[in-house]
Amino acid sequence: MYNARAMRPPTHELLDPELCGVPVECSEGRAEVEFVATARMRADATDLVHGGFVFGLADHAAMLAVGAPTVVLAGAELKFLAPVVVGDRVRATATTAETSGKKHLVDVVVRRDDTVVMEARLTCVVPTRHVLEGGRDARR
User: Fold this and answer.
1) What are the structural domains of the chain?
2) 36-48 tens-digit pLDDT
3) Helices (H) and strands (E) in the chain — how many of each?
4) Among 50, 74, 80, 134, which is least packed by CB within 10 angstroms?
5) Is the pLDDT confidence value at 21 over 60?
C-alpha cells in the first residue's frame, strides 16, 4: 500500500487537489480520493456542484487504482444518484474489477457520508508510452 499523504502518486501527480481531490488511500487495484466541494465548482445560485467535478474525482480515483504512469481514460458508464452542494465532503472509492492486458475496468462509488452520489464503471487503458510522447501533434 502506498501512503497517499506521504508519497508522490504513481500517476496524474499534477492534478489540482481542490478540483480533483486528495488521495487518501492507494494500494494495488484500489484507491480513495476526496474533496470538499468549493464555490469554484458551483453550477448555479443554489450552490449545486457541477457533475463534471464529481466525475473528475471518480476519474482521479480510478487512475490511482490502476497506478500506471501512462494510464488514460478510454470510456465511462455512470449514474448520478444524488446532488452535491458547496461544502459537501465527498469521497470516491475505486476498485479494479477486471484486467485484460492493457485494459482495466474500474468500479467507482462516490459518497457523501453514507449517501451514494455516483456509481461508475470506468474503462482505463495503459498504453506502452505516454499519449503525448512525440509531442502534441502526435494526437492526430
Assistant:
1) 17-139 (3.10.129.10)
2) 999 999 999 999 9
3) 2, 6
4) 134
5) yes
